[in-house]
Write a structure and sequence with these properties.
The protein is mainly α. Helix content is 51%, strand content 4%. Strand 3 and strand 4 form a beta hairpin.
Length: 416
């Protein structure tokens, strides 16, 4: 049975704009022959039971997420698909520990560089998605992924990268809300190393460099000049995952390229490591990295690309996005991620059997609420304003703060 790997499409000169998708591509390109799998740049996370890409279709079964795909492939009979089959217990323990480290810290760096940074997002990331998606997903998915990235990195307190949250004079709104702004008369006019380090732009860069170093340094120590991380002679799942994150850190050209600069200036062995994996796993013709001699080097094997099937589902996408945004109703829409799909890909794209049931349930809920109000003459406590703190806050007039609805209104240049 031919395997189909669905991923976010190409961008920045890479086969995918997502690190987990790049990891899955690298894994399958090394574990399978070219005639055993197909690579589909569908850029459609609704295909996945977990609503995330990469998604692997194996017959009638859909598996979402790199780790779930890895678990599925490693348990196939014969062990052909398991790149870690020759690893001993110590090697497997190292792979497990470093996998957790890379997915945690590497994802934070990608989030900060690609999504939280307003300059990089508007100049590079958002246009890359525009080249992959069709309307209305061009207005729905990028803001959603950016909001998720901001939530994942909120604990790092690096919101200064997000210029959308700053006032026009370059000061952060949160600083005034907290009362931490220093009066002009109390400021020192003499510039010292300490004062420069405390300036927002310099302090942010120092923290970003520290985060990058904390991510690159353990990987450089593990590599120790070898060709691969765990074994010098063969690729493991850890190499594939590491390639996904390091390639996105190294290759894309961003207006604020602090991540690639940190890697190129201090971690040349990791740069060569990415080049080697590019040639081994996805073919160097698919990755715009030149070796240090300035030549292209030997071309690796091509990727088994297959054109995605296009369905006219603009109306269904709008309805689905609106329903998913509703409290309680959105939860009902998502299928059970543990239940395999028994429909074909075309049926999965065009058939939405849950919609009639959801509309019936919504109508029943509205009827029940109206009956309660007419009978008691009171509004249920659940709907009291005090029970919804977010509704008591000052409303924002910016479309960017309205989520998916604001994105769609921005598309038609609606003015409130």
């Amino acid at each position: 049975m031919m395997l189909q790997l669905h991923v976010w499409g190409p961008g920045f000169g890479l086969p995918s704009i997502d690190p987990q998708c790049l990891a899955a591509i690298a894994y399958l390109s090394h574990a399978a022959f070219e005639n055993e799998w197909e690579l589909v740049a569908s850029s459609d996370p609704t295909l996945s039971p977990t609503r995330e890409l990469p998604a692997l279709r194996d017959g009638s079964i859909w598996i979402g997420g790199f780790q779930n795909i890895l678990y599925h492939l490693q348990r196939k009979p014969g062990g052909q698909w398991d790149l870690d089959r020759e690893c001993n217990d110590r090697d497997k323990a190292d792979i497990s520990a470093y996998t957790s480290f890379i997915e945690t810290h590497g994802q934070s760096l990608i989030d900060l560089s690609f999504y939280v940074s307003s300059e990089n997002y508007h100049a590079s990331t958002r246009p890359a998605y525009s080249n992959l998606l069709r309307w209305p997903n061009t207005w729905l998915l990028p803001p959603k992924r950016r909001a998720a990235a901001k939530a994942r990195t909120d604990h790092l307190s690096l919101s200064s990268l997000d210029l959308d949250t700053w006032n026009g004079d370059g000061t952060n709104k949160a600083r005034f809300a907290a009362g931490t702004e220093i009066p002009k008369l109390a400021r020192s006019t003499q510039q010292t190393v300490s004062s420069l380090a405390k300036q927002p732009q310099h302090a942010t860069r120092f923290r970003l460099d520290t985060l990058a170093e904390a991510f690159f340094e353990p990987l450089a120590q593990l590599l120790q000049g070898e060709r691969y991380l765990v074994h010098d002679e063969r690729v493991t799942s850890l190499d594939c995952l590491t390639f996904g994150y390091l390639s996105l850190a190294l290759v894309p050209e961003m207006p604020r390229s602090w991540l690639s600069q940190s890697m190129k200036s201090r971690y040349q062995p990791l740069c060569r490591y990415v080049e080697n994996l590019a040639q081994d796993c996805i073919g160097k013709n698919n990755l715009p990295i030149r070796d240090h001699a300035g030549s292209e080097g030997e071309t690796g094997k091509p990727l088994p690309w297959k054109d995605p099937q296009i369905a006219n589902l603009e109306g269904s996408i709008l309805i689905r996005s609106s329903l998913e945004s509703l409290p309680y109703v959105g939860v009902l829409y998502h299928p059970n991620p543990l239940q395999p799909s028994t429909t074909t890909r075309h049926e999965k794209l065009t058939h939405v059997p849950v919609l009639p049931t959801m509309f019936v349930g919504l109508a029943a809920s509205v009827t029940a609420l109206a009956s309660y109000v007419l009978y008691t003459g009171e509004i249920p406590p659940l709907f009291h304003l005090n029970n919804w703190p977010s509704l008591g806050r000052q409303r924002s007039s910016r479309l960017v703060d309205l989520g998916e609805a604001g994105a769609m209104l921005g598309a038609v240049r609606f003015r409130p």
